[in-house]
Amino acid sequence: xxxxxxxxxxxxxxxxxxxxxxxxxxxxxxxxxxxxxxxxxxxxxxxxxxxxxxxxxxxxxxxxxxxxxxxxxxxxxxxxxxxxxxxxxxxxxxxxxxxxxxxxxxxxxxxxxxxxxxxxxxxxxxxxxxxxxxxxxxxxxxxxxxxxxxxxxxxxxxxxxxxxxxxxxxxxxxxxxxxxxxxxxxxxxxxxxxxxxxxxxxxxxxxxxxxxxxxxxxxxxxxxxxxxxxxxxxxxxxxxxxxxxxxxxxxxxxxxxxxxxxxxxxxxxxxxxxxxxxxxxxxxxxxxxxxxxxxxxxxxxxxxxxxxxxxxxxxxxxxxxxxxxxxxxxxxxxxxxxxxxxxxxxxxxxxxxxxxxxxxxxxxxxxxxxxxxxxxxxxxxxxxxxxxxxxxxxxxxxxxx
Length: 401
Ligand SMILES: Cc1cc2nc3c(=O)[nH]c(=O)nc-3n(C[C@H](O)[C@H](O)[C@H](O)COP(=O)(O)OP(=O)(O)OC[C@H]3O[C@@H](n4cnc5c(N)ncnc54)[C@H](O)[C@@H]3O)c2cc1C
Known about the structure:
It is a single chain. The chain is an alpha+beta fold. The chain has two domains: 4-45 and 150-218 and 360-395, 3-Layer(bba) Sandwich (FAD/NAD(P)-binding domain), CATH 3.50.50.60; 89-145 and 221-352, 2-Layer Sandwich (D-Amino Acid Oxidase, Chain A, domain 2). 32% of the residues lie in helices and 25% in strands. The protein contains ten helices and 22 strands. The strands form five sheets. Strands 4, 5, 6, 14, 15, 16, 17, 18 and 19 form a nine-stranded mixed sheet that branches. The protein has a six-stranded mixed sheet with strand order 8-2-1-12-22-21, sandwiched between helices. Strands 9-10-11 form a three-stranded antiparallel sheet, with no helix packed on it. Strand 10 and strand 11 (191-194) form a beta hairpin. Helix 2 crosses helix 10 and helix 8 crosses helix 9. The model has no long low-confidence stretch (mean pLDDT 94). It binds flavin-adenine dinucleotide (FAD). Its EC number is 1.1.3.-. This is L-2-hydroxyglutarate oxidase.
């Protein structure tokens, strides 16, 4: 029997899976993407960092697939002539209170075999790497890189098409019916019958999972991250990437400086609750999405636990001076006018349990012939090619083909 495999979602993860399947010649492969272009959501709205694996719990899927994925993304960029720049990352403790958390990042980095990692305890040495930084200690990952994930996704999509796969844009999936070994899928523009379906719907992954009858938990509670551009005449303040020591109680990495692949420097992202899953500013409000988030039982314990941080992040989103204050901790020469404009934002598809607990690791569920990626937040772009190999090997039973 010829396999007919459908993939929901034309972000980097869905397209990487389609590419892995078509490269193996596994039957017919069709990607259904609701937008008129690929990479329209998280994949085209992120920091563009190829993470080297500093943060993730050793042994987790994130740790394993980030390490493997980093190498695969680098090879892919080399093969396609796409930019890949190892600008390096410095995670900086600004004072002694942050040293225990920095030590934990160092421990995880060593366990995750982050290449050429170095611990720096001499502030003067910090400034050899980042001349304008202030801090008491840091870990340095020289192989952390930057790329353009939207271009990578387009290049992967070209491989999919060249190998006979089909990518249908403007085909939003509205209904999924599992009937024995057959999966019937209706979109707003077409109907399909597949033998397998893989759902990589990012911010909508829980909603699409519900169409298959999956448990509503974990749920995506959307958090927006906003970036400010550093004015072009001040980009020399940053050579590579300068990150804070992340707060271990919170899943996001904190406002940082990143020299992008096209030499722009951006500051961010923060983390504020998004009032629409695909809302890229405060003025985009979806009453449905907001109501769905508010009535999720897990939202309340989460809000109770993190309300101080929430107020702090929202205030800094609305008041530039407060955002500037967060960034200036590491780069004292930064002036408010150097933050030129809020230029970009992205919404994270982070999954949370019913009790408000964070689902930290990547998560893949299987419901008969349907495989659903339920949690693929950062570093899923870095890990995308490795996630594709993992899904093929462990969730599609196609290894023998
Ligand atoms: C602010 C921010 C910064 C980040 N920084 C980094 C970073 O530096 N490095 C890194 O590795 N990762 C980073 N990430 C995470 C990374 O961007 C994501 O993990 C990754 O892009 C996930 O890819 P995806 O294909 O699963 O999701 P997406 O890119 O969101 O794609 C999902 C696709 O599914 C489509 N879809 C949804 N519902 C339907 C439907 N019903 N029918 C058809 N199509 C549907 C959507 O339109 C979308 O195109 C960041 C994320 C954010 C938001």
